């Protein structure tokens, strides 16, 4: 089966990059699309316009800004084939769509579903009007401790799922896709066969979930990791330095990065050759290659390549008036629907101390 990727002229601000060149877990979106589709036996073909497709056999058509997991694509194709009809992929509204910030995506939002730029076309004789295939992406969730006067009356929950579909049409979606890849690894572990989990528990010599999570680390070559550093559920690239007392949890650290002493990195993505100075915290954030941070706190933020953040420059955002965070898209303020969302810095941005 062929997969046609419709190329667009979209640019993701403030980077000025095409969606397919944006990095998700340190890989270009185009590479992720290619790997997932080829793993499912699909032949890729890039086209400038969907109207140019003249294919009587079954195929799928998707936009070039679409990020998806293998689990999502398998489910969509399987259910579409059972229907023997033209279909459009949709996700049931919930935590997953909320935290991917569908309000900033170029999608069709209905009361019972969110429709994405992903269509299935059966053989010519079965074609007609597309029907939605609505997928429930909710699997697990985790409550993040937060005082009621900050979060409101409802607990603040994060979705844990490996069924992901996000259109990267805005920097908020890019941030969401990166963070979702880390949470998806937790969901995959929770979905793993009991025999595999038993093997990890035996290897850890413990049933404690944190000790078990310590066993799924992937450590690259020629790393210099201090014996007092603690790494948990993370992927560490080659030639990485991690100093004394530092903690890296459920994160990705790119090749050649340097993490000084007493640093905390949690649920974050660091690109190649990043530097995090002693005593700093990076929490639910995305740093492109060669970013340098002396900031004591990077919270839910995105930093482009070659950025520099000095000491006492804080990147974070909360609303305490009961409203949700708004961002600019195409010159208009858009309500993201989320409670906290940090800063986005474009490529080559420098922040001086105290910003």
Quick structural summary:
The protein has 355 residues and is α/β, with parallel strands linked by helices. The longest helix has 21 residues, at 171-191.
What does this structure look like?
The protein has 355 residues and is of the alpha/beta class. It contains seven helices and 34 strands. Strands 1, 4, 5, 7, 8, 9 and 10 form a seven-stranded mixed beta sheet that branches. A seven-stranded parallel beta sheet has the order 14-17-20-23-26-29-33. Strands 15-18-21-24-27-30-34 form a seven-stranded parallel beta sheet, with no helix packed on it. The termini are far apart.
Element layout with pairings:
Layout: E1 2-6, E2 23-24, E3 27-28, H1 29-39, E4 43-47, E5 59-63, E6 66-68, H2 70-83, E7 87-91, H3 95-99, E8 108-109, E9 114-121, E10 131-135, E11 140-143, H4 148-151, E12 157-160, E13 165-167, H5 171-191, H6 194-204, H7 209-213, E14 218-219, E15 224-225, E16 230-232, E17 235-236, E18 241-242, E19 247-249, E20 252-253, E21 258-259, E22 264-266, E23 269-270, E24 275-276, E25 281-283, E26 286-287, E27 292-293, E28 297-299, E29 302-303, E30 308-309, E31 326-329, E32 332-335, E33 344-345, E34 350-351
Parallel strand pairs: 1-4, 1-5, 7-10, 14-17, 15-18, 16-19, 17-20, 18-21, 19-22, 20-23, 21-24, 22-25, 23-26, 24-27, 25-28, 26-29, 27-30, 29-33, 30-34
Antiparallel strand pairs: 2-3, 5-9, 6-13, 7-9, 8-9, 11-12, 31-32
